[in-house]
Each structure stands twice: as C-alpha cells, then as structure tokens.
TrEMBL record:
Keywords: Disulfide bond, Hydrolase, Protease, Signal, Thiol protease, Zymogen. It comes from Acropora cervicornis. It holds the Pfam family Inhibitor_I29. SUPFAM superfamilies: Cysteine proteinases. This is Cathepsin L.
Length: 356
C-alpha cells in the first residue's frame, strides 16, 4: 500500500511538471524570445525544471530587500550553473602564480600619493564600450585588451579598440587556448614579443578559433611588459587602479548570482579568493551612499543569438543599456528586449581577484 501511494505521488508530480510546462506562458514567451528549440519533450521537461528553479531563486533573491544587488532572468535561464560555467568562463587558473612567469615584476605602490575617494576611468576616456564575447571562452582576451587600451590612451591620448581575435588566434605559442581559455599575462607577453596587437577594426572579433592573420601594418598598440599586483592585496590594487588606470583582474564568476546579475553591488558570500575563472577589467572603485565599498568592473556582453524580429546593435550604446529586458511581456521595442547577459558594468565585491 505504501508503494502504491508513492507511485501515485510520483506520477502526479511529473504530470504536474509537464502540465505546468504547457500552461506556463512565461516559459513559452521566454523560449520564443530566446529562440530555444529542444530536441525532445524530455529535453524540454528537463530544461523547464532548471528554468523554473532559476526563476524561483531569482525571485526569492529579489524579494529580499537586504540584498545589495538585483538579479534577472536572462538567456542562461535553462542552464545549470555548471553548464553556464563551461560555456562562458575562460580564465584558466594555473597552480600558484606560475602563470605570471619569471619576468613578472610586482607593483610597488608609489609613496606619498593621496588617492581619490572615487575613480571611474570611463569618464576620463580610458575605456572602450562593452564588447560582445559570444560563446567563446575568451574573457582573458577582453580583459587584456581592456587594460592595454587604457594604457595606450594614457600614453597617446587616443582610445583605440584592440583586437581580442588577434589574441585568440595568435597567442597559442604563449600558452593560451583561444576559445578554450587563457591568461591575461600570456596575452601581454605575446603582444610584447609580437611587436604589437592589431586594431579591432582591422582584425574583427568572430568568437571562434581561426588561423592567425596578424598584420604588422594594422598594429594599434604595443606593450613593453607588465607588472603584477600582489594577489589579495586590495590596498595595492586600489593604488594601482587609482594611479595607473584600468587593471586586468580575475574573479570567481562561477555562481548563479553572477550569471543572473542585474544591477547593484555584487556580493557573493561563497565567492572564492583563489578559484578564479573569469577575466575582467577593474576600471574604478568607490563607496556607495550606504557606505559600501565597491570595485567598478567592466565585463563583456554575451550575445550569441539574435531574436528574429529585432536587429541587435552591439557596441556604442552597450554601456548605456540597462538590463530591462521584459521577456514576459510583449513589447515592440528592441532595446527593451535586448537579449544579453545582464552584466554590463557591475560593481564587484572587494577581495575576489588575482592580478593581472
Ligand atoms: C596588411 O595590411 C595592409 C594595410 O592594411 C595591406 O595593404 C596588406 O595587404 C596586408 N597584408 C596581408 C598579408 O594581408
């Protein structure tokens, strides 16, 4: 009798899930909006159960007013955090600090410097718009170009967007793995040995591994080397960001809170200070009105699909777009429906980085 009851419950439970799936208009709207097509009903059931769990988690988070940031459903909604992680985060963490190489010099904070309370290099012209990484584990390349773009601007007064694809295709000999991941310092070493990096315009991003076609006559910037900031030393990082410019950093992005981040000061209690999987760019720091210290971090967009009805513009306005995608509702404005990972500029926690 006990067995029968259990069996009935199980049948009822699974019927409820597919009933829910069929009736759930939000699910169908989300699926349609993001062009999700599943191979079978079983696959759809599985994806639906993941999606509904993510949605519950997001709603629960957002209803907690003590949180300093909000989350939002996006195109990653039908994936587990493990799957998201495998798809997007390409910063390969090496054991200890071997990845820095023997040529690495440690940053010595200048003495007698009074740091500003707030720094935002975007407002000083050091930072290019947020770029689209697509489905390629090339975050390390975006982080590297970001810091060199800043230093190039500092030196020449010209903001030149530099080619991530050049790094993806051509720095394999320096130990990077293209779309399968890499390290910012290895990108800097490649650029130095190569005699420069091409401009974004001459060597555009395709988001897949290609044959290297670097062309010396299209070089947009060069580096003479790099300096590392002591891992875990936030005062040194603050000094570096405050006096040098945007700095390449690595963070632990392997959490649902990151995948569905929407806005505010990102705080993840489970963030690791040693297991770092994502390269980004620290472009400033400050303190909120509530007294919370933050790092201002440039991340990348992840647009890997295009809704059929709306042209997707990537680039100029990217940094302006607030994550207001209202996929539950029908809307005709493309900007509101812009599909993207909700992270544009975000303010990170203190303490989760390694340099460069
Ligand atoms: C390199 O770029 C220059 C200028 O854009 C062009 O004239 C030349 O043909 C290019 N070389 C190759 C090998 O593509």
């Amino acid at each position: 009798m006990a067995h029968l009851t259990l069996l009935l419950v199980m049948i009822f439970a699974s019927a409820t899930l597919s009933d829910l799936l069929i009736k759930d208009n939000a699910w169908h709207a989300w699926k349609e909006y993001y062009n999700k097509i599943y191979a079978s009903d079983d696959e759809e059931s599985l994806r639906y159960s993941i999606w509904i769990n993510n949605l519950k988690m997001i709603n629960q988070h957002n209803s907690d007013k003590s949180k300093s940031f909000t989350m939002e459903m996006n195109h990653l909604g039908d994936m587990t955090i493990k799957e998201v992680h495998l798809m997007l985060n390409g910063y390969n963490r090496m054991k200890e600090t071997k990845s820095h190489g023997s040529d690495a010099v440690t940053f010595l904070p200048p003495s007698n410097v009074v740091l500003p309370k707030e720094v935002d290099w975007r407002t000083k012209g050091y930072v290019t718009p947020v770029k689209n990484q697509g489905q390629c584990g090339s975050c390390w390349a975006f982080s590297a170009t970001g810091s060199l773009e800043g230093q190039h601007f500092k030196k020449t007064g010209k903001l030149v967007s530099l080619s991530e694809q050049n790094l993806v295709d051509c720095s394999l000999k320096f130990g990077n793995y293209g779309c399968d991941g890499g390290w910012m310092v290895r990108a800097f070493r490649y650029i130095n040995a190569n005699g420069g990096i091409d401009t974004e315009a001459s060597y555009p991003y395709v988001g897949a591994d290609e044959k290297c076609h670097f062309n010396k006559s299209d070089v947009g910037a060069d580096d003479t080397g790099y300096v590392t900031v002591k891992s875990g030393d936030e005062d040194a990082l603050k000094m570096a960001v405050g006096t040098v410019g945007p700095i390449s950093v690595a963070i632990d992005a392997g959490h649902s809170s990151f995948a569905f981040y929407n806005g505010g000061v990102y705080v993840e209690p489970d963030c690791s200070t040693t297991f770092l999987d994502h390269g980004v760019l620290a472009v400033g720091y400050g303190t909120t009105e509530e007294g919370q210290d933050y790092w201002l971090v440039k991340n990348r967009l992840v647009i890997s699909f295009r809704p059929s009805k709306c042209p997707v513009a990537v680039g100029e306005q990217a940094g302006e777009w607030k994550a207001t995608s209202k996929w539950q509702e029908t809307s005709t404005t493309c900007v509101e429906l812009l599909p993207m990972q909700a992270i544009l500029w975000f303010e990170g926690t203190l303490g989760d980085y390694e340099l460069p």
